[in-house]
Amino acid sequence: MRQLLNNRYRLLWLLCLLSGVLLAYIASAQEQDERRSALVMTIDGSISPASSDYFQRGLEIADEQNVALVILQLDTPGGLDSSMRDMISAMLASKVPIAVYVSPAGARAASAGTYLLLASHVAAMAPSTHLGSATPVQLGGGGLPGVEEDDPEQSEPSDQTEEQSSGDGQQGELQGQGQGEAPQESGDGKRRGETAMERKVLEDAVAYIRSLAERHGRNAEWAERAVRDAVNLTAREALEQNVADVVASDVEDLLTQIDGREVVMTGGSETLQTADLTIERFDPDWRTELLSIIADPNIAYFLMIIGLYGLIFELINPGALVPGTIGAICLLLALFAFQVLPVNYAGLALVLLGLGLIVGEALMPSFGILGIGGIVAFVVGSIILMDDRNMAVSIPLIAGVALVASGLLLWVMLRFMGLRKRPPRTGEEEMIGATAIALEDFDHQGHVRLRGERWNARSGETVRKDQRLKVMAIDGLTVEVAPIDSEASTS
User: Fold this and answer.
1) I need a labelling partner for 37 at 20 to 30 A (CA). Which of 21, 325, 350, 390 fits?
2) What are phi and psi of 412, to 5 degrees?
3) pLDDT tens for residues 71-85?
4) Does residue 104 have a cis peptide bond before it, meaning omega lies within 30 degrees of 0?
5) Whose CA is closest to 98, among 314, 339, 274?
6) Whether pLDDT at 146 is above 50
């Protein structure tokens, strides 16, 4: 009997073990099925806060859907350093392998695109594409900070992006200068690359791009040259020099070629299984398109100004509706843009204070004290509105808005000065000089009709009934009058 019970217990234990193995196999199979897709995103244009927001949302979707691979189809001339670094940080921390694929034919991964390509787990390029030109320069051109400009005929203003110097937060663009170009001398005899600021920017960029290349076993020496000398490579040259991993004609060809490739992830190495992946696309949506337009600091700033003025006019003239509606929409769009921009809240507070003081001058005249203070606060706040000096609001735009505010302030002051010179139209002061009619004969005190009302009157001369009198002063309910004929003869 005991032997029979032991056999039953063993059989039950074996069934439980087999059930556990079967459940684990089913769960693993389901997980593998979930990961049998590749999510494809597309960035065509400059790297901006909108691009960074779109890319990071795509990675969140990929993580939620547990896809096997993320493919970023890239064609960019460069972009903002802060947005590029946010994308790279998200890329390095991603649990899903990411392939940056420079496509279609004729596309480029210039400047910031070069950093993104080298940071990816798989660096792929389509035929007839290129990468490079990663030299830091100031936004809008002009060379590196503290460095004399090159000859305009020798510069290439097209391929530009930004790079940030460590320590001081200075940012710049990345500008192609041609391969093998020797350092040039500035006006003071110093060679390019020898000033302290230029070295800071260059060395930070070099260390950053080398670390990205070395992480994935790519050509760090060429990556350094891309920063120092702004060199470029075609897709085929990049493959030969171990800068790119794959040259693929399309996404399907890319998935076929990288099947079985080992990539470096945060938690260690991982082997890609991409042969039979289905392709899912996450294209830029309305949010990305809207952000790409309004995330420009100048547009966001202008929307904020229109929004604030619209609300102010609505408060001054309740029921107008149009200014309030337009103002509310513009202000909400500006706040939507500010969430992805490096806004300095002290600058924003100064802008709001300045506008409030300018409006205060219109409502409570202070002979220009509030208005001038408001314009100063407004201009200073506008200049420091963005923490990133390369995303600062355009000085001409600030000057234009300040001039409009100054013009409005000047008009208000001149208006009030003109009103002070005009004769009073209400109150006791308005009645001085008015004409009254005597209701009776009197020598010193009597009654007159003034503006249809009966008033007590006092006069230093004899007054006849129905005589026209001029009001000289008012004392309570008594008016001091003088005969008009007497005044005329005296004058």
Assistant:
1) 21
2) -65, -45
3) 999 999 988 888 899
4) yes
5) 274
6) no
- Is the pLDDT at 490 greater than 80, yes or no? no
Q: Phi/psi at 143 (nearest 5 deg)?
A: 80, -170
- Looking only at the bridges linking them, the beta strands covering 98-102 and 108-110 are unpaired
Q: Say if residues 272 and 69 touch (Cβ distance below 8 Å).
A: yes
pLDDT single digits (tens) 243-280: 999 999 999 999 999 999 999 998 889 999 998 899 99
**466 closest CA partner among 487, 491, 488, 435:** 435
Query: In 3-state terms, what secondary structure has residue 324?
Result: helix
The model carries a pTM of: 0.64
What is the CA 160 to chain-centroid distance, rounded?
Answer: 19
* Helical H segments across 230-285, by residue range: 235-240, 251-257
- 413: which 2 tokens? 């002051």
Torsion angle (degrees, nearest 10) of CA 382, 384, 47, 217: 180
Q: Which residue has the higher pLDDT, 183 or 90?
A: 90
Phi–psi pair at 67, nearest 5 degrees: -75, 165
Task: Using pLDDT thresholds of 50, 70 and 90, give the confidence band for residue 475.
Answer: confident
C-beta of residue 369 within 8 angstroms of C-beta of residue 357:
no
Query: What is the pLDDT, as a whole number, of residue 59?
Result: 95
Residue where the block lists tokens 């399309």 = 250
pLDDT the model gives residue 169: 36
As a whole number of angstroms, the distance between CA 253 and CA 72 comes to 15
CA-based angle 377:381:384, to the nearest 5? 145
What DSSP state is assigned to residue 182? P
Secondary structure of 343-385 in HEC code, one letter for each residue: ECHHHHHHHHHHHHHHHHHHHCCCCCHHHHHHHHHHHHHHHCC
SS3 30: helix
Tell me, what DSSP letter sits at residue 337? H
